[in-house]
């Protein structure tokens, strides 16, 4: 049995976490933000009690209906995303591999049902978090919002990578304000995608998320800085921005 009083969450002692999780089980959509405040504030910090909650979260997810499942999977996914990687000794991803395996299986299944693109991307990120993926489990939302902000590797200017509603291009100024100089994005040919990008593309197509899928070859393609002309990999700059 877990002695929760010896563990901590964002607010101090984790004694109250079992009752919080009871309330979460009864009303996942209603209690999710409270759970996040305690176990994963700002979606970027987890605590010993957060990882210790994963077995219970896997149980709750296994038992709850499809209308509540997204809330439970995203809560668990946010915690998993904070975990030190699989290569770290005693990584929570290893210690809690059994419940994480259940959460991964449920997310994999639930993804196919997600209709709304924002929910789909969030669940896809959770799926990657449960696998221990680095960075891309937090950086896919630009495929849905249609925008990434990156820095030129040569001249250091801030740039927008725009995917979707207004086209596929790179620019240095606010493109919503009108005429700006745009560098076109050069997508990878779909048949040349490999590794994670290929898997994301194939999966999004299979799940009927055509618009998201369409952005993936651009995200993993190349473009040039509108100011200095330096050619660069879009995905490499997204990763560089995250790891700064
Ligand atoms: Zn530049």
Strands ordered across the widest β-sheet: 3-4-5-6
The unique ligands bound to this protein are: zinc ion
Alpha carbon gyration radius: 20 Å
How many angstroms does the end-to-end distance come to? 40 Å
Show unreliable segments: none
Structural class based on helices, strands and sheet pairing: alpha+beta
Percent of residues in helical segments?
A: 40-55%
Return the average pLDDT rounded to an integer.
Answer: 95
Strand composition percent: 5-15%
Which overall shape is indicated by the principal axes computed on the Cα atoms? elongated
- The total number of structural domains is 2
Order of helices and strands: EEHHHHHHHHHEEEEHHEEH
Main sheet attributes: strand count, strand direction, barrel closure: 4 strands, antiparallel
Kindly state the number of beta strands.
8
Count of alpha/pi helices: 12
């Amino acid at each position: 049995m877990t002695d929760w009083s010896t563990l901590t969450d964002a607010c101090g002692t984790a004694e109250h976490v079992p009752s919080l999780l009871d309330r979460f089980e009864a009303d996942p959509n209603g209690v999710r933000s409270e759970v996040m405040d305690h176990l994963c504030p700002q979606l970027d910090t987890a605590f010993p009690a957060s990882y210790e909650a994963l077995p219970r979260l896997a149980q709750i997810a296994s038992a709850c209906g499809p209308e509540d499942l997204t809330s439970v999977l995203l809560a668990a996914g946010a915690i998993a995303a904070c975990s030190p990687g699989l290569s770290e000794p005693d990584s929570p991803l290893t210690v809690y591999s059994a419940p994480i395996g259940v959460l991964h299986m449920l997310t994999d299944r639930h993804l196919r049902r997600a209709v709304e693109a924002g929910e789909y991307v969030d669940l896809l990120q959770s799926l990657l978090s449960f696998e221990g993926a680095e960075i891309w489990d937090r950086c896919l939302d630009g495929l849905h919002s249609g925008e990434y902000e990156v820095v030129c590797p040569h001249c250091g200017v801030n740039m927008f990578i725009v995917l979707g509603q207004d086209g596929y291009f790179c620019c240095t100024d606010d493109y919503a304000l009108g005429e700006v100089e745009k560098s076109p994005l050069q997508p990878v040919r779909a048949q040349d995608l490999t590794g994670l990008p290929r898997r994301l593309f194939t999966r999004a197509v299979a799940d009927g998320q055509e618009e998201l899928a369409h952005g993936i070859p651009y995200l993993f393609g190349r473009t040039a800085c509108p100011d200095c002309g330096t050619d660069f990999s879009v995905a490499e700059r997204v990763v560089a921005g995250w790891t700064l």
